[in-house]
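Below is one such protein, fold included:
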Amino acid sequence: MPICPNCANEAQDTAVFCDQCGTRLVDQEAGAAPASPELATPEPEEPAAAADDGLRCSACGYANVPGELFCENCGVALDALEPEVAEGQVEAAAETPTPAGETCPACGATVGASDDFCENCGAALTPTGTAAQAEDVPVGPTGAEAEPGPTVTGPRFIVANSGAEIPLPAGDDILIGREDPVSGIFPDIDLTPHGGEEGGVSRKHAKIEVQDSKYTVQDLDSTNFTLLNRQRLTPFSPKPIQDGDELRLGRVQLMFKTQ
């Protein structure tokens, strides 16, 4: 291991210049005296063990170990140089979200500490979600104050953010979604007036089936999913829905009532 004749620093075996003071090290084979760094014009060399993420010398291109003060190949000061970023590291860092320390209870995705709903599956991240925020000032899809409609009896949905009640139409198969005259889609329950478009409700989002006064709900392979009591439904797999259950289509939250 070479010893710097100027500061007695132990340098690496492949070092040509001292990484502490920049002095050229003695040629171990020829025993030559140290030469002045200003007059030295060594050929750049790239040891096989050079670190890809080290300090790249701007003079000779040598990849030095992080923390070095002088280039081990040509002696140039490295104080002003910044560590190089390996190819692809910048893109990877930009794509990797900063962990928030919280996970969605429905899908396990990482979520922000102040988020009310999961961006991955739409599940509520607080006990009441935005419904609690809407208790003081009910807000409709356009941001204006909304007045709850008349009280409805029998099977119905209650919209969480406005208190509006939507009676269940008669029939065995009840389509829930968003009306689209251009496509000829007219669901039995149209959530467009209740924030359906802004809330990511699909035109054919979910379906309620009625048999012997019992109700089931199934997701119709919607874009933004259907959640029953914060559990994401598998498309085309009916699940029982009962009085008091929470149903979420995209970001539109409903409560199912039979009484």
Q: What stands out?
A: Residues 89-95 form the longest helix (7 residues).
